[in-house]
Amino acid sequence: MPVWQKAHSLSIEVFQITKDLPRSEDYGLTSQIRRSANSVSANIAEGFGRKSLKEKVQFYSIAKGSAYETQNHLLYGLGVRYFEKKKTETLFQEYEELIKSLNKIIKSFN
Question: What does pTM read for this prediction?
Fold first, then answer.
């Protein structure tokens, strides 16, 4: 699924931008943003594996929520000057496109 491939790729990019965060963030922002970014592709995969349309929509909706959560973490990281502005804006926009793709998939089941 192209949407899963994009989500997986984005989670790796998020991992890369968090590698140099302060150790004090290991159980804070670092953990939270990595988990939310990875949750997007994980929930897409789980939804893909479900048989019922209701379950598929549920997992794709959870993936969408995790994408929004990741965007929030990106904005926070930018606000506290952990992340570069250009990279953060690019990732934010890529998550926006991913959310639109998930919306299309969810809408196709209704």
Answer: 0.95
